[in-house]
């Protein structure tokens, strides 16, 4: 006799936008054409997960954009693309077959679930938006967050000659040279002092690429620090790539900044890079993780504790991952 199908599962279920999901029963999903059922092993709590959950047009909904699970044949995959109202923060999920990516045996479930989202942020920005070349220098604005810390490792693995990390969390800043940063700059100082430090760095070590996870006022100060006096010769090219907006969704940029230096501003995200290019990057990230060259700090939490964990303050520089 075949295995009897379950009628329900335990999941992180959100009933209203702005609330925290609750750990409760939810109807078992039935795969449709092109979909497969996965037994979820781990699912990360990311900003994207929260935004997607609160922005859904229907409730109740299961939270979780991506994660790691087992197919019916035992293959372990990183996956996402759940059809609403289903999500990855559940015992089981339905996902698009085309979005299942095999996970190397050398990577544990927690790392496999948490790493891709954070690593892709800087990898895609560097490779596809900034057209990074080995030997170039990278300035990371917002380097004390989860994705910012990982950006240091990504830049090094891609061949960056120099990496400068700027952020607010002093305790984490003190650890970033161990990750591979050549210099660190604290954002916890006056605009004048920060401007002087960034300008001094640019004068002695010209920067090729700025990866910005913050936007808002920090971006204004850093870009303003790049302003040069007129007629100082041709300015070197600086590619400023906006990845996040943790410090604000708007920034005021004086026109003089753009006229006085070789600043080029672009953004990196799901709307600016082809889907195929994104999925082609996963095997490269997993290969480096399997070698221990990409790593991150992770806090595992039972999915049953999702309501409290969802509302708690994030531990700086660490990713929370739910275990069903």
From TrEMBL:
Database matches in SUPFAM superfamilies: GroES-like, NAD(P)-binding Rossmann-fold domains
Limits of the Enoyl reductase (ER) domain: 18-322
Top-level taxon: Bacteria
Name of this chain's protein: Zinc-binding dehydrogenase
Source organism per UniProt: Reticulibacter mediterranei
InterPro entries cross-referenced by the UniProt entry: ER, GroES-like_sf, NAD(P)-bd_dom_sf, Zn-ADH-like_protein
GO-annotated molecular function: oxidoreductase activity
């Amino acid at each position: 006799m075949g295995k009897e199908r379950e009628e329900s599962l335990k999941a992180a279920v959100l009933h209203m936008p702005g609330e925290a999901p609750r750990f409760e029963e939810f109807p078992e999903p039935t795969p449709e054409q092109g979909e497969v059922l996965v037994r979820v092993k781990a699912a990360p709590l990311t900003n994207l997960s929260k935004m997607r959950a609160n922005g859904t047009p229907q409730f109740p909904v299961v939270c979780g954009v991506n994660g790691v699970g087992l197919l019916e044949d035992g293959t372990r995959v990183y996956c996402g693309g759940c059809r609403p109202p289903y999500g990855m923060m559940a015992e089981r999920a339905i996902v698009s077959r085309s979005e299942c990516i095999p996970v190397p045996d050398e990577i544990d479930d927690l790392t496999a679930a948490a790493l891709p989202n954070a690593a892709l942020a800087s990898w895609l920005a560097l490779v596809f938006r900034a057209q990074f070349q080995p030997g170039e220098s990278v300035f990371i604005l917002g380097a004390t967050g989860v994705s910012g810390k990982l950006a240091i490792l990504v830049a090094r693995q891609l061949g960056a000659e120099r990496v400068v990390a700027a952020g607010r969390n002093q305790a984490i800043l003190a650890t970033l040279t161990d990750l591979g940063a050549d210099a660190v700059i604290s954002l916890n100082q006056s605009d004048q002092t920060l401007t002087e430090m960034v300008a001094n760095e640019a004068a002695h070590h010209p920067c090729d690429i700025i990866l910005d996870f913050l936007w808002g006022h920090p971006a204004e100060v850093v870009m303003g620090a790049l302003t040069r006096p007129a007629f100082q010769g041709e300015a070197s090219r600086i590619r400023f790539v906006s990845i996040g907006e943790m410090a604000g969704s708007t920034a005021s940029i004086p026109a003089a900044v753009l006229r006085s230096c070789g600043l080029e501003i672009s953004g990196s995200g799901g709307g600016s890079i082809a889907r195929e290019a994104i999925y082609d990057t996963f095997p490269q990230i997993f290969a480096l993780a399997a070698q221990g060259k990409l790593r991150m700090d992770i806090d595992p939490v039972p999915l049953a504790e999702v309501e409290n964990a969802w509302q708690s303050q994030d531990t700086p520089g660490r990713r929370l991952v739910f275990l069903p």
